[in-house]
Specification:
This protein has two domains: 10-82 and 264-323, no CATH class; 87-223, no CATH class. It is built from 18 helices and no strands. The protein has helices at residues 10-27, 33-50, 58-76, 83-94, 97-113, 125-134, 138-146, 153-168, 181-194, 196-200, 202-211, 216-219, 223-233, 242-256, 263-272, 276-287, 292-304, 312-321. The two termini are 18 Å apart. Residues 1-5 have low confidence and may be disordered.
């Protein structure tokens, strides 16, 4: 006796309809691959929001959103942001968004009341500054610091000016090739070796050492925060090819991850290594039974971008995935 197909969630039906419009525009060449990918990702995000609570498919669609976003960065993007910084932004969005919200709340609370007289009494003051620094928020870190360093200004004015410049102009997850990492890093090393404030104040010295890439494993609160910090503070080596840069990021991720990589993170590594064939095979294993549309749509985007060769297997998979049970 044949089993009745499981009814599709209303949100998934809407996703299929919206996806059809997106890819119809791509077929008629009325939209670019980049725009189609962003529109498809927006439809996936909307699907997650609209899903019934407790839907087992939700995690699969969320993973699809993250993987599509990573493919946009690696294969579809025309942005000037350097890959290490763009990947850092991706990690923060898909792993660390709640952490960043909590950090922003802590910053706002300190901003509203911290002063020279209260900073030593607030146990969250220096930890918050450290977290702001290793998360790439140098301006906010300086804003808190500047509220408590007034007594140092007369004696260490040049030191504070240099520290402010380093924090305000530190690399961010949006930095591009115009960022002069060598000059920025040389300035940090100079302060660590010669600056009287850095040599006498343990807190200031720690901030500079973090900016130079030291102690990140000790102060990062998660493996993904450590990866972001390394992407921010280590030499981006803008002259390297994308695959070589991807392999360097893979090394950071593997070193930071506390255990054997789960299936999703294995796909992330394969994409960073530009091993599309293996990545798509892993995506198939992760979502083929419950959410086959994503693999077919992703493959279609990659083919149209010229990153993947069309095959008979792909065409068959795409036709099958286009059928609504």
């Amino acid at each position: 006796m044949a089993h009745e197909p499981v009814p599709l969630d209303r949100a998934v039906k809407n996703l299929i309809s919206e996806s059809a419009l997106v890819f119809d525009g791509l077929t008629r060449l009325s939209t670019s691959v980049q725009d189609a990918s962003r529109a498809y990702r927006s439809a996936l995000i909307k699907c997650v929001r609209d899903m019934d609570s407790g839907n087992d498919l939700s995690d699969v669609v969320k993973a699809s959103v993250a993987l599509l976003h990573l493919c946009e960065i690696l294969y579809f993007s025309t942005a000037s942001t350097l890959l290490p910084y763009a990947f850092g932004a991706w990690v923060q969005e898909h792993y660390g968004s709640l952490d960043l919200e909590e950090l922003d709340d802590a910053f706002l609370q300190l901003q509203s009341h911290v002063s020279l007289d209260t900073s030593d009494d607030d146990a969250t003051y220096w930890p918050t500054i450290i977290q702001l620094v290793i998360s790439g928020h140098g301006r906010k870190a300086w804003e808190l610091l500047s509220r408590t360093t007034s007594t140092l200004h007369s004696k260490y004015a040049p030191s504070l000016a240099s520290l402010r410049h380093l924090l305000v102009h530190m690399p961010t997850t949006a930095s591009d090739a115009s960022f002069n990492w060598t000059a920025w890093n040389d300035a940090i090393v100079h302060l660590l070796q010669n600056d009287p404030l850095a040599l006498s104040d343990a807190h200031i010295r720690l901030l500079l050492e973090l900016l130079s890439g030291q102690h990140l494993d000790q102060h990062a609160r998660s493996w993904h925060q450590q990866v972001v910090a390394k992407c921010l503070f280590e030499d981006p080596k803008a002259h390297l090819s994308a695959p070589t840069t991807g392999r360097r990021i893979v090394q950071r991720l593997e070193a930071a991850f506390p255990s054997t990589l789960p299936p999703f993170e294995q796909i992330v590594l394969l994409l960073l290594q530009y091993d599309l064939t293996s990545a798509l095979e892993h995506i198939h294993g992760l979502s083929a039974a419950s959410f086959p549309w994503f693999l077919a749509h992703l493959a279609d985007l990659l083919i149209r971008q010229g990153e993947l060769a069309p095959t008979e297997t792909f065409v068959l998979a795409f036709v099958r995935s286009s059928l609504v049970p």
